[in-house]
Each structure stands twice: as structure tokens, then as C-alpha cells.
Queue: 2 jobs
Job 1
Amino acid sequence: MNNIKKHFLIFAFFAVIPIALGYGISPSWFASTFLGIDAIDINIAHILRAIMCLYIGLGLFWLFSAFNSPYRNPALVTVMVFAGGLVIGRVISCLVDGIPQPILLFYIGLEFVFVPAAYSGRDRTFSTNMI
């Protein structure tokens, strides 16, 4: 099971890093290429770069945890919270705002897969061992 956790966390790292870099290296390129937004202001660029670093920070924690077994279960919980929070927000946005660009629909699918995958990979005794 530990090997599965390790590989899942490595996969989570490699899944989130390109998304993070896409958001933050050139926010205007990302917005025009994938979202159909011609121009973004400094505030949106600021938000996208902050999101990039949040994603990179979590991704690095997942990669670290993949190679440090005591951190694997907490890392799986952060994958669940991260992906679960994103997918809930995206679903709310779809219901309230309408259907977004295809890349954002792809992210919804990816996040829907990550939550149950991370949940099934964690140790069942994890929550009782934390007390």
C-alpha cells in the first residue's frame, strides 16, 4: 500500500505543477490561450501568480511526502482537501455562472478523480493515530 501512496503522490505532484506554471509564468498567455480572455489587469495576474505558488507549495509537499512515509497519510488528506475544495467551487460556479472553457471542465474531471483516489489510499487507522 505504501508503494501505491508513493506513486499517487508523485503523480499528484506532476499533475499540479504544469497547471501551476501555466497559471503563473505568463498569466496573460494562459488567459488568452485557454480562457479566451484578451487582456488581464495586474490584479488578476497577481491572483494567478499567488495560486501558482500555492499549487507549487502543495505539490512540493506531496513530492516530499512520497519519499518520507510518515507524511504520506497527511499528504493524502491535503490532496483530498485541495482537490475537493476546488471541485466544489468549480461545480458551484458551473451552476451559478454557467459552463466554463474546456480546460476548466478537464480540471473538474481531474479533481473528481483525485478525491476518491486519495481517500481510498489513506490508512484507515490514520485518524485514530493522530489523537
Job 2
Amino acid sequence: MASSKFRKMLNKELSHFAESSKSGTQVSQFIISTYMDKEDDDPQMPQLEVSHAEPPTPSTSTTSESPQLSLLGKAKTAAMSRISGVRKLRSTYGGQVPEFGVEGQRELAVHMQRVSTQQWSTSDHYPFKHFPLAPFIHYMTGCADASLKCAFLNSTDGLLDEWGPNIFKINELSKGHSLTAITYTIMKNRGLLKTFEIPPGALVTYLLHLEHHYRDNPYHNQIHGGDVAQSTNVLISCPSLTGVFSELEVLAAIFASAVHDVDHPGFTNQYLINSNSELAIMYNDESVLEQHHLAVAFKLLQDSNCDFLVGLTKKQRQLFRKISIEMVYTSLVYGLRKMFGSFVTVSFLSLNFTLM
């Protein structure tokens, strides 16, 4: 009896709630269908009638859907659509992926590989250890003689593993796609594409889409993103760090470096907070830029054409996301320091001793 009275009172309150808005109707439907036992309904108790229902959409299934799942799905879609700066995918990359991820001028190989052009005489006896570069040397010198010798210093390693490659030249030769060329080449050279079964086309599609979301700022642009990715690659290549990081940690570190300033508006966190900007309001004045960079980066991954992490398990994806968030949240510098710990000090001390 008491239960029946309670249900009558609940039904009355929900009726008023449902009349206020469409969202109220959805909530009331969910509560009634989930928590009110229809089998024991009092026949004298009036049932809640909904006067306005959501119109069906073309993508709506004809089969009945759980109210709670419908509400959660709509809430997720609405929330994700409010991420500022996210734009639709312009194109996907299909077919054979070029050596460096993007089409570029032939000289690009010289700037992506460790090559010394100090001596070009045929009297120099330096073998072509990295034979695929021969066509590029031919292009640069105009000499078709295969006996032409060039100085290749440890040519199995690339300039991307050293400090100081000409990032601006790489951007020029890659036709404005330095971030894609650098990040793709680093991941490929490290064997990460094979280790995690990363589809090359999906990776290039994501990186090009990521570049599209970098703004044309004087500093926080896609060139800077590629530059930081290359610098991170050098840091984690220190001999003293060999075997310290797992392959997944390396993948996350390169990814975080590439995305860490995507859609940067060109202002500091403090300026955005003081000016009461939309980004500051969205992220509650807490690490505004860092949260936004991460939101955009992972939102782009939700496009099936851009999801290059399809080969990862659920646990691996969660760990990948956690590492990436920690690195970007701490502005990379502190993230690298946290990852390296004392190894950073040892590495730089070793470097100083070497230079001395």
C-alpha cells in the first residue's frame, strides 16, 4: 500500500517535470521504465503520457533502444561536438605511402638522412651503405656514374636521430608537411608501425589532419610540432636510456610531442583566463591550452579513417592515452623529466664531457 502511494506521488512529480522540456520527458521516461515495476501497477493509477516525442532521425534504428543508452549516446555526441576548433576530415590517404609519408622534392631524403657532402671526388672511397639514396645523389650532382662516392657517416641512422636538422628546409621540401614527414619517418624507422600494426595510410591521414588543425602562428605552428617530435626522438635515443622505455611509451612520447600545441590560438593560458575566453570557460581555467590540445588530438582519432591505433588492445590504448595526457599536461618538458628521472642528468653530463 505504501509502495503504491509512493509511486503515485512519484508519477505526479514526474508529470510536472516532463512538461517542462523535452529533456525532462527523456529523464522521466528513463526513471519510469527502469525503476517502476509495470507488473504491479495499480490499475487506478494514471499513467504518465508524453505529449511530445523526439522526431526520428535517418540514422535511428527501427529497433527499440534502451532509454538510458539513448540518453548517454546523445549526451556524448552533444559534448564532443562542442570542442572548439575541430573541423571535418578533408581527405583520406590511400594507396602506397611515400618513403617519408608525403610527396616532396627529391632533396628531402638528404635532409632526412645523415649525409656528408663535404667531398664528392671519385678518389674518395666511401661505399653506398644506404643504396636507396643513390637516385637522390644522382639528381643533385647530375652524375649517372654509379662509381661516384659520397661520405656516408653511419648512414643507417638518420639526421632525425641527431640535434640540429634544418626543420625549415624539411618543411620547404615536404611542401609544408614537415610534421607529417618527420613524425611518420621517426615511427617507421623505429619499427613502431610493424610492432603495433599501424596502417601507414591511417597514420598519414591522421598526421595531415593534425597539421590542418595547427594554426598559422609565428611559433606555435605545425613546424614547431614536428620540431618537438624530432627533439623528443633524440632525447629518448640517448645510449644511457636504451631499454628504459617500452615501445608503447616511445609511441606515446612521439605522439604527444607532435600534438602538444595543436589548435594553439597564439595566447597564453593566463591571457585566455583573464579575457574570459570560451576556452577558459570550457576548461574551467585549469591548464586551458593543454586540455584543449589533448581534446582536439584525441577527437581527431575518433574518425575511423584517422584511427592508426586499431592494432592496439584496449589496455594498450588506455595506457597510450594516459602517457600522452601526462606529457602534454606537463608541457612536455616536465613530462620528459618525469619519464627520464635521473637519466636526463646523466645523459647531459655525458654529453658535456663528450663536448669538452
